[in-house]
Design a protein that fits this description.
The chain has 4 helices and 10 strands. The chain is of the alpha/beta class. Strand 9, helix 4 and strand 10 form a beta-alpha-beta unit.
């Protein structure tokens, strides 16, 4: 059984919301995510859902990526993906939230800023239930796409592989990264962990 996971395909990570965390081309991956889903029996959506008063929030982009001492919020970021705002919404061409088989909202607590969808905390102790849900559905293979390649996609894929033991495929055609260098490094890390990192869906052979 195969599951397709849309990781944080939200307007907050696109030029639709330039004041948040825009990723070049982030709003263009909807068709690739939809095509990816045709290979699976189940489709999962994950969404950042951050409070405006989170401990990691700073008021400008030049103050971002400063290390923090909080156990589960490691870096500063500008406010993004706040429920009720445009940035929280999914990008164009994706299904309604209720049309997915399962949805994970992450980062709801003001002092938790996880990147992966499998755990609420960076220390990976408090499960979101995603791995358990996939196993309950008999899933053995997972196709992953979304935003951004070098942060939430990478971490989610690594968690699915390391903690879930799934056969994980990251479909770069359905992803966009924040920075070229960290995206390349992230792809190396994923491949080293035994994850299939493919340029297009045509390479998917499970």
């Amino acid at each position: 059984m195969i599951a397709s996971i849309d990781v944080d395909p939200q307007k907050t990570f696109t030029l639709i919301c330039p004041g948040e965390l825009p990723v070049q081309g982030g709003d263009k991956i909807g068709p690739a995510l939809n095509e990816q889903a045709t290979k699976a029996q189940f489709r999962v959506l994950t969404k950042d859902a951050h409070p405006a008063n989170a401990v990691w929030v700073v008021d400008s982009h030049d103050k971002m990526l400063v290390p923090l001492e909080h156990a589960n919020a490691d870096l500063t970021w500008v406010s993004h993906a706040v429920p009720g705002t445009e940035g929280f919404e999914t990008i164009p061409e994706l299904p309604e939230v209720t049309e997915y088989d399962h949805v994970i909202w992450k980062g709801v607590e003001p002092n938790l800023h996880p990147y992966g969808a499998c755990f609420h905390d960076i220390q990976e102790k408090l499960s979101t239930g995603l791995i358990e849900w996939l196993k309950a559905k008999g899933i053995t293979t997972v196709l992953v796409g979304g935003l951004a390649t070098d942060y939430c996609v990478k971490t989610t894929a690594m968690q699915l592989k390391m903690h879930g033991g799934f056969d994980v495929w990251v479909n770069l055609e359905a992803c966009r990264g924040i920075a070229e260098e960290t995206t390349e490094t992230g792809c190396v890390e994923m491949r080293d962990a035994g994850i299939h990192v493919i340029e297009t869906l045509e390479e998917f052979t499970a």
